[in-house]
Amino acid sequence: MIEPRLTLEPLCYADSMWLFELERDPEVMRYTDRGPQTLTNIVEQMPELVRGYDKEDALKLWLVCHPDLGRIGTAAFYVNPQGESEVGYKLHRQFWGQGLGKATLCALLEWVAKHRPNEPLVAEVFKENIASTKVLQRFGFVVVKEYWNHEHQLWDQHLERACLSKAPLSC
C-alpha cells in the first residue's frame, strides 16, 4: 500500500468550527491531557494558535490534510515547560486504523527536520494509547519513563527521540 503524502497547513480563524468538531469528540480527546472542548474553548484559543507560527517556541498546531480525504486531524510542535521540543497529533476518529497516524507523524517530523533538526524530541502518550505509542516507536521514539498521571488517573509514558540531524528520518 502506498501511503498518502500529507501536508500541514496553518490554522486560521475560519477553522474554528472544524477544530471544534475534532476536539469535541470524547473518544479523540480521551488520549489527550484535555477533555472534550466546547466551541467557546476553541474560539478563546484561536488567537494564540494563529500567532504561534510567528513565535519560535510557541505552540504550532497545523491542520493535517490528505490529498483525497481533506482535513483528517491536527499535528503539533511546541517547546514544553521543561524546555523540550515536543510533538503530538490527533486524528478524527473516522481515520483511525488506516495508517494515517504514521503518515501524519512523518509530515510533522519532516517539518521538524527542516526547522529544528538539532533538537531531541519528546512525546507524551497515555499508556492505553497503544496505537500512538507504536507509531512513535516506528520513528525512533523510545519509552524512557512510565508514571502515574494523578490528574487523569492513568499511566502515562514519556518518549524521547534523538535529534533528526543525528538520526535521520525514514518515512
From TrEMBL:
Coiled coil: none annotated. GO terms for molecular function: acyltransferase activity, transferring groups other than amino-acyl groups. The keyword Metal-binding does not apply. Keywords: Transferase. Residues 6-160 form the N-acetyltransferase domain. Pfam families: Acetyltransf_3. This is GNAT family N-acetyltransferase. It comes from Ferrimonas aestuarii. The lineage of its organism: Bacteria, Pseudomonadati, Pseudomonadota, Gammaproteobacteria, Alteromonadales.
